[in-house]
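Title: Comparing notes on inverse folding

I've been comparing how different people in this forum approach sequence design from structure. To keep things fair, I'm posting one structure and asking everyone to reply with a full sequence. Here's the target:
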């Protein structure tokens, strides 16, 4: 098999020795193998074959991921099905990409400008949306001619190994891809290794800071997709019921374990109680339970440590004086859920933006409604965050919503819940990361410019 895979039974014990083998294979494949030297159309052909294999198993992979991380099956099913189009967009971008061009010069001189692959890429991904996180790094890197070491999270090791099998079946040359489900030791090794040319990371801001520091010392290329504490601004002219219905997905999708979750809801004082009541009604209708049940909207947290963290944030909100509207500490009331890593979907009102629940990324189904008096104040509150990943505005006037969006310091933003185009750049301002993924920006990030004078 052409893809190096760590055995499932021993993934927890994978250490620097496996990291060394993966790096050596990737380095050999990049420096001496055929992949970086193939025509872009040939690389697209192999990636397209993988995309078909992967799409054909969307349902199977969704069930596997749900069994590992507790994401509800409605979410994993939707996400896995969407990845076919996501990869098709990358293939289309690669087909149109300006891989090599020529600049006419003075006195008959010429300059060839080409996009060279950045080299060996180490992709380190989290557990909450594992295949999307993997493919947003793998696919553009492979299309660019890079070789890749993928390090999945130990919480979702088995689906990482299944992904490796599909990559091998697609027919990538020896050493082009290695998949190492492992813990932090392998990540540290790859980040520090001088022979790894780029780190592509999705995860916590704390880990991102450490990666950026190490990479900076070595002039290593890096892209970091980190945390968020996104604000949804409900303007006085908004359709409140529409906004509350849409926040069911934007705020509580994937158990709230999403970096883009809209967890700060900014409401005008003139309609504050109406907004709180509408969101509370939406949340009361959310089903918590078995993540394999299609009717379940929120399943268990991925592990006990995450459950405990969410509970501690809920307790902090109460201690700081926020008004508990629904939810709170402890297990949901549904019989049988007390034994799982479940938390109660929780809504706080009368929240000050200085509170912990308004500033920290909780990564769970906990929402805070913050009052504002003027639009300028709402913009200031939205921007008063260490993060800048996502957000939204709700208004009867979409053009005015666009004006508000231009004032918010985030990498992505929506007006009235509009869906993102997956070809558009994705990434964050401030502590939400460095660089951009998706579309032409994501493909460009896997290349280096080379100018050749003739």
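Reply #1:
Here's my take.
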């Amino acid at each position: 098999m052409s893809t190096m895979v760590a055995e499932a039974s021993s993934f927890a014990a994978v250490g620097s020795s496996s990291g060394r083998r993966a790096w050596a294979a990737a380095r050999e494949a990049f420096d001496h193998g055929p992949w970086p030297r193939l025509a872009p159309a040939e690389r697209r052909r192999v990636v397209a074959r993988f995309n078909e294999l992967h799409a054909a198993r969307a349902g199977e992979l969704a069930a596997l991921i749900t069994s590992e991380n507790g994401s509800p099956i409605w979410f994993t099913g939707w996400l896995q099905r969407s990845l076919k189009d996501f990869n098709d967009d990358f293939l289309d971008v690669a087909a149109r990409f300006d891989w090599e061009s020529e600049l006419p010069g003075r006195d008959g001189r010429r300059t060839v400008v080409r996009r060279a692959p950045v080299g060996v890429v180490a992709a380190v991904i989290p557990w909450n949306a594992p295949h999307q996180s993997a493919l947003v790094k793998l696919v553009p890197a492979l299309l660019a001619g890079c070789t890749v070491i993928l390090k999945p999270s130990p919480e979702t090791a088995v689906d990482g190994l299944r992904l490796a099998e599909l990559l091998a079946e697609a027919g990538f040359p020896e050493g082009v891809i290695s998949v190492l489900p492992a813990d932090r030791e392998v990540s540290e090794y790859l980040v520090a290794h001088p022979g790894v040319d780029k780190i592509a990371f999705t995860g916590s801001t704390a880990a991102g800071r450490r990666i950026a520091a190490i990479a900076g010392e070595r002039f290593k290329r890096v892209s970091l997709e980190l945390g968020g504490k996104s604000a949804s601004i409900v303007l006085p002219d908004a359709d409140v019921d529409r906004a509350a219905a849409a926040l069911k997905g934007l705020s509580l999708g994937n158990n709230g374990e999403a970096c883009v979750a809209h967890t700060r809801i900014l409401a005008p004082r003139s309609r504050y109680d109406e907004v709180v009541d509408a969101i509370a009604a939406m949340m009361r209708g959310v089903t918590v339970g078995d993540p394999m049940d299609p009717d379940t909207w929120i399943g268990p947290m991925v592990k006990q440590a995450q459950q405990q963290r969410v509970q501690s944030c809920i307790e902090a909100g109460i201690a700081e004086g926020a008004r508990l509207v629904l939810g709170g500490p402890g297990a949901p009331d549904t019989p049988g859920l007390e034994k799982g890593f479940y938390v109660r979907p929780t809504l706080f009102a009368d929240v000050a933006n200085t509170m912990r629940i308004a500033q920290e990324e909780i990564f769970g189904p906990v929402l805070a409604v913050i009052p504002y008096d003027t639009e300028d104040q709402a913009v200031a509150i939205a921007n008063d965050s260490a993060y800048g990943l996502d957000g939204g505005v709700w208004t009867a006037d979409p053009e005015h919503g666009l004006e508000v969006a231009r004032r918010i310091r985030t990498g992505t933003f929506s007006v009235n819940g509009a869906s993102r185009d997956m070809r558009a750049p994705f990434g964050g301002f401030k502590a939400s990361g460095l660089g951009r993924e998706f579309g032409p920006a994501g493909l460009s990030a896997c290349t280096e410019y080379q100018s050749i004078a003739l």
